[in-house]
Amino acid sequence: GISGCSAMTACHGSGRPGRLLGVTPIRVLDDADVTAALPLRAAIDAIRAALRAGLDPAVDPARAVMPVEHGQLLLMPAQWAGYAGVKVVSVAPNNPARGLPRIQGYYLLLDGPTLTPVALLAAAALTAIPTSAVSAVAADCLAEPDAATLVVFGSGPQARHHIAALRAIRPIRDVIVIGRDQDRAAALAHACGGRTGTPADVAAADVVACCTTARTPLFDGALLRTHATVIAVGSHEPDVAELDAATVRRCAVVVEDTATALREAGDIVQAELDPGTLTELAPLVRGTARIAPGRPRLFKSVGMAWQDVVLAAAACR
Predict the structure, then answer these.
(1) Which stretches within 91-144 are classed as H helix?
(2) How far is CA 124 from the centre of its chain?
(3) Measured between alpha carbons, how far is residue 182 from residues 104, 185, 310 in Å?
(4) Contact at 8 Å (CB) between 124 and 157?
């Protein structure tokens, strides 16, 4: 069964009670509710704890992607620890120019044994938070303990969440924001106490976070210092890459799941890596895998359904 919630009494969170299809009382959490229910460190701890407890990302079904006229519809089901759930989201690349979110949708959380709906959560926060929390868990395994300089590509919600998440696990003092929209980049830099920069600043970075919708490489990977860690989260399509193939081949590469990366991670697919050279995140977190020193480290994330069910359950509790 589940702990902390019941299908009939809903969840003890800040969200509003509601009814799904007029039948089952559930808790409805909007983006503000989800953010309030998932403090950053709690989200990072929940992801780490699930992986240490034996969660296997490989059991996730493949993400269902349906192209539509103005973007994509995504369907992502998963189950873990007494819960099941499914995220249904739209991705509309032109929405930011309209003043609307690029990602919209909802997550339906279910009681695992009965598949009774428990909560309906807004998906924008329940995408940004898991992605940055997983990145922080990976970076905690990969980045140098004294990593102080962070270069962030992007100026949207993912960039903002990654700055906060990486600061939660490393003593980041210098944040450099690089974005195509100079005004947005400057606003984010100001908000986080950082500064704007150029791709050449990668040469001074301890950690580089790529949080963009770019379809072509963002920087010259030859600039990376040997000890640098790169986090790339911007795409889940095999023909899209934020990093060039030479950069990926230069790095020790960590992925959420090998099969998923070879199917969806353009940075990995286009580099034509030997699958045997990829390290998966779960054994790295459990301490049963190691990354050899002497080369930059790359964590390439495509975002998987297990992350959503873990944090939807945590938010509900």
Answers:
(1) 125-142
(2) 12
(3) 25, 5, 36
(4) yes
Could you tell me the pTM of the whole model?
A: 0.88
Report the C-alpha dihedral over residues 200, 221, 204, 216, rounded to 10 degrees. 50
DSSP state of 225: -
How far is Cα 309 from Cα 20, in angstroms, rounded to an integer? 19
Question: Which residue would you say has higher pLDDT here, 294 or 1?
Answer: 294
Helix axes 40-52, 125-142, angle to 10 degrees: 70
Q: Which tokens is 301 given? A: 């994330």
Could you tell me where the beta strands, DSSP code E, fall in the chain?
A: 5-6, 10-11, 16-20, 24-29, 64-68, 71-80, 83-91, 103-111, 117-122, 149-153, 174-178, 195-196, 207-210, 229-232, 252-255, 279-280, 297-300
Element (H, E) at 305: helix 305-316
Summarize pLDDT for 66-96 with one digit per residue, the tens.
Answer: 999 999 999 999 999 999 999 999 989 899 8
Q: How many CB atoms lie within 10 A of CB 206?
A: 21
